[in-house]
Amino acid sequence: MAWAASSRAILAGIVLSVTVGLSPTVVRGAPSPGPAEDAAAGEVVFKKRCAACHAVAPGQNRLGPTMAGVVGRKVGSTPGYKFSQAFKDGKIAWTPKNLDKFLANPRVVFPGTKMSLAGVSDPKDRTDLIRYLASLK
């Protein structure tokens, strides 16, 4: 009888140790970055891949149009920028989904684009970049 009670106490201690040791943080792993972290990572991607041709301030077009307010805007509609015919003929808005497709392979989505970027092949980089672009108002 004493052995059974002692065994139960030991077993309860083991279960408690395992339960505490495997807290939700450990079980789930590191939390995935939220939108703010993704946008910060996207800014890094933007500076490496896009900033040479695109500004982020409203009204500041460069070789490419400003990216301020791009998410939700109709393709080829940035004031003061001379778009290629491919963009002028575009009938879509820059939704996150459309941006993802375009950034993956610009020349396939808009044949005739003036944009020299071959594409952003890493899906995470594209997601981060789109979150950053969405933060630009």
TrEMBL record:
Domain named Cytochrome c: residues: 37-137
Matching Gene3D superfamilies: Cytochrome c-like domain
Residues passing through the membrane, by range: none
Single GO MF descriptor: metal ion binding
Keywords: Electron transport, Heme, Iron, Metal-binding, Transport
Keyword Heme: yes
Superkingdom assignment: Bacteria
The name this protein goes by in its record: Cytochrome c domain-containing protein
Source organism of the structure: Novosphingobium endophyticum
